[in-house]
Amino acid sequence: MPGIMGIIHKDHGVHEARTNIDMMVKSMLHERFYSSGIYRDEHLGLSAGWVCHKDSFSDCLPIWNERKDICLVYCGEDFSIEAEALTLKSRGHRFNSGDASSIIHLYEEMEDDFLQKLNGCFSGLLVDYRTNRVLLFNDRFGLGRIYYYENDRSFYFASEAKSLLRILPELRELDLTALAELFSYGCPLENRTVFSKVRLLPGGSKWSFYKHQSMDKGNYFKREEWENQPRLDEKQYYERFIQIYPGVLQRYFQGQQTVGISLTGGIDTRMIMAWAPCLPFKLPCYTFSGVYRDCADVKIAGKVALACQQRHEIIRINKDFFSEFPALAKRSIYFSDGTMDVSGSAELYVNRKAREIAPVRLTGNYGDQIIRGVIGFKPLNLCPEIFENQFSMRINGARQAHIPDGGNPLSFFCTKQVPWYHYPRHALETSQLTIRSPFLDNDLVSLAFQAPDSCRDLRTSLRLIYDGDRSLAKIPTDRGFTLSSTPLIGTARRLVQAFTKKAEYAYDYGMPQWLTKLDNTLSAIHLEKLFLGRHKYYHFRVWYRNELKNYVKNIILDSRTLKRPYLKGNELEKLVHAHISGLNNYTQEIHWILTSELLQRHFIEKS
Questions:
Q1: From the CB of residue 356, how many other CB atoms can be counted at a distance below 10 Å?
Q2: Tell me: the pLDDT tens digits for 437-449?
Q3: What secondary structure does DSSP assign to 385-436, as a single string?
Q4: 3-class DSSP state for residue 4?
């Protein structure tokens, strides 16, 4: 994914860093549509580089002020600067509209307080020659991820861990605690990484480095700024939401590149469409679908797009996905530094096709959590028999230690769940597209902390859709909800959608072990064609048994995998044979064993 990287020397060893920074940049050049560059300053002992999407908001680096005494490397986007642009220009600053060149002038006017203004997912490096200071920072959620490592001579940082591993082979060592957390929750926790000596900058960081001196590890944002706001009543909250929401959306449709929206049948993209500031047939809309049928998202999204007078396309997973799966799985692990599991192969496949429609993808991601307070963070509960006893105890310990406590669930989501659990998919998607979600906008998140509990419900969201576009409120969601409908019809519709969704889950990931044997007995009549594809567009339980079974056997039953010290090889063999033969359902276990093995081979063992 796009990002920054660099080395800040504590001594005068900058000459040897020239080759290193070249290698760090090259390790992150995954696609032909990336731009890159390098900036060095031997006086400050700094070597820095960047990778970004061509023609994106950040494709203007490095950025200098008029006096050439401040330099900025910035990766990501910012949705605050339009409001500041007129003021900056009135004060004599010169910059381009629509890119990151204005941000450096915000720093000139506000110094470090400029970080409070930035609104988006980003990471950045600022060099102030007036004070000989280097400032390293990221967004308040930590989605602009920065990995770092420090030794006696230098401080190393990068948006991708592989950039550090490329020049520091001693970092190619697994952290077993983090690996146990990966098997527990699908992600390392507490700003750990799967690499034992590599850590993560917390969200909202501003770390200052002075010439060959010590650093100051500070932060510019604390969650108490959200939490300590007064609560609003229902009327105040709704009026405030309606007041700011159109302006928030306006920001996310701006820019020099074409914006497309990945429509679903759910609430959150509907909330965007109901208030979208776009002309007819000017907003590309598309929906992901699978191999069996048009899913509910496709059918409903098509109606939504038609009601909004927008074109709608279907991006399908075709049969070529299965032949491409080995390469897609490897890239999913590699692009995300081993944080995304191999199911990301399907995400990578459809997002590549989405880029052909528009380089910017607008999504409804995080609406459930920010607007309605849904916090879906729970253990994976993988089969314990496949893990070595001591390592299994680590997994149990991680599972017990990190269950969300009784604090503010929205704070937990913003400061922990987003940067740890949601980052992997964000990283994978960002490797292909510029990803935008208005539901992580600073103004909306701040308001969400003021919402009364009574407004964190589906009815409030449906009312917002109705007040934006009444025609969209009449189209049932993928769960069968509308703001108002005949009670009998509405109840029947919701029951049907709930049944088909649960039936699909039960036939796929969630199939109970006792039912797999019956399904295997009836395999000749292909029940998957009856249940699958109604709500989801990928179905790995069936695929691991059929189209992908040879890949699963080649990787997991390989002697290298079976001899991993944290696994029980004989139990793993039984598990794979039981799944492929249809006797049991071990989809999640296969996901994460494949993931950990590809992580081992492409990060730990590969030179």
A1: 11
A2: 999 999 999 999 9
A3: GGB-HHHHHHHHHHHHHTS--SS-HHHHIIIIIIIIIIHHHHHHHHTTSEEE
A4: strand
pTM of the model: 0.94
Q: Give 462-508 pLDDT, tens digit per residue.
A: 999 999 999 999 999 888 878 666 666 667 766 766 667 666 666 67
Report the 10 Å Cβ neighbour count for 25: 23
Tokens 């993209």 -> residue:
269
Q: Does the pLDDT at position 536 exceed 70?
A: yes
Tokens 């799944």 appear where? 579
The secondary structure element, H or E, covering residue 51 is strand 46-53
Q: What angle do CA 501, 275, 423 make, to 5 degrees?
A: 55
Ordered by where they begin, the domains of the chain are: 3-173+192-221 (3.60.20.10), 227-604 (3.40.50)
CB 222, CB 216: distance < 8 Å = no
Give the residue, 108 or 12, on which the prediction is more confident.
108
**Which sign, positive or negative, has the C-alpha torsion 316, 430, 253, 355?**
negative
Q: Whole-angstrom Cα distance, residue 181 to residue 115?
A: 32
**Phi, then psi, of 541 in degrees rounded to 5:** -60, -50
* 3-state secondary structure (DSSP) of residue 538: coil
**What SS3 state is found at 60?**
coil
- DSSP string covering 133-186, please? EEEEEE-TTS-S--EEEE-SSEEEEESSHHHHHHH-GGG--B-HHHHHHHHHHS
Cβ-contact 27, 163 below 8 angstroms: yes
* Nearest in space to 127 (alpha carbons), one of 77, 64, 51: 64
